[in-house]
Amino acid sequence: MLTCCLTATLKAQTLYVANVYRGTVDEYGAEGSTINTSLISGLSGPNGIAISGNDLFVATQNPGTIGKYKTSGATVNTSLISGMNIPGGIAIWGSNLFVVDYGNDTVGEYTTDGVPVNATLISNLSGPHGIAFSTDSVFVVNYNNGTVGKYTTAGAEVNAALIFGLTSPTSIAIVGTNLFVASFSLQDHAYVVGKYTTSGATINALLITGFDSNLGITAFGTNLFVANVNDGTVGKYTISGASVAVNLISGLNGPYGIAIAPP
């Protein structure tokens, strides 16, 4: 299950991190500088996070809502979408918001004003956690059965077990034709980030290793940003797995949801 458990007038490459245990969304420069450690506060288990223009969307486990805020931290609607059962990953595609509902095993599609387009766009999942888009495809990480499924953006199944045999995968990021998936490695006895193609082929199942807890990941350009829940850090790596800054940001309290605003 979830341990805690991704543009107009924004600062260049601003990183937003949801602290599950502290109940905040923090703001940093992508080079690690602190901007605001309590940009949004008073949340209850903030988890997934996504950015669209000047709007910031945050999934909170309790009471199962998606809140909408400005990237300045101003509140638009703390319950833009409600009645969810442990919402997790969020992604923006086109002009709509796609939300993983872990407890209901679904992915729902909504407008960025919170209007349902299809609350069960994808169903019969197995503990969905993370979500990411590439061209006309959507990829969903299933925590319970250890798979990454591939679907069309209209919700049609392409391959429900495109990648399989994973242990407790939590999050996913896409760069070009490559998928990056965070999971627990029985081989490495640690949490890792693996690299795969969007066709499901394994490139390197142990691309980045040695983490001690569930991970949230996002990508920007040729870099990956990895949030480690237990040790309170966000690390920066290349998409080839090389370390840029293992402790780019430290001293966090349960970082998981992570998103970066392009310049």
Tell me about this structure:
With 263 residues, the chain is mainly β. It has strands spanning 14-19, 24-29, 34-40, 46-52, 55-60, 65-70, 75-81, 87-93, 96-101, 106-111, 116-122, 128-134, 137-142, 147-152, 157-163, 167-175, 178-185, 190-197, 202-211, 215-220, 223-228, 233-238, 243-249, 255-261. The relative contact order is 0.16. The model is unreliable at 1-11 (pLDDT under 50).
Could you list some keywords that capture this structure?
4-stranded antiparallel β-sheet; mainly beta; 263 residues
List the helices and strands and how they pair.
Blueprint: E1 14-19, E2 24-29, E3 34-40, E4 46-52, E5 55-60, E6 65-70, E7 75-81, E8 87-93, E9 96-101, E10 106-111, E11 116-122, E12 128-134, E13 137-142, E14 147-152, E15 157-163, E16 167-175, E17 178-185, E18 190-197, E19 202-211, E20 215-220, E21 223-228, E22 233-238, E23 243-249, E24 255-261
Antiparallel strand pairs: 1-2, 1-24, 2-3, 4-5, 5-6, 6-7, 8-9, 9-10, 10-11, 12-13, 13-14, 14-15, 16-17, 17-18, 18-19, 20-21, 21-22, 22-23
Coarse shape: globular
Strand arrangement, major sheet: 3-2-1-24
Uncertain segments of ≥5 residues (pLDDT<50)?
1-11
Indicate the structural class. mainly beta
Strand tally:
24
- Could you report the average pLDDT, rounded to the nearest whole number? 93
**Largest sheet composition:** 4 strands, antiparallel
What is the H/E string?
Answer: EEEEEEEEEEEEEEEEEEEEEEEE
Number of helices in the DSSP assignment: 0
Percent helix, as a range, is under 10%
How much is the radius of gyration in Å? 16 Å
Q: Tell me the fraction of residues in β-strands, as a range.
A: over 45%
The end-to-end span amounts to: 35 Å
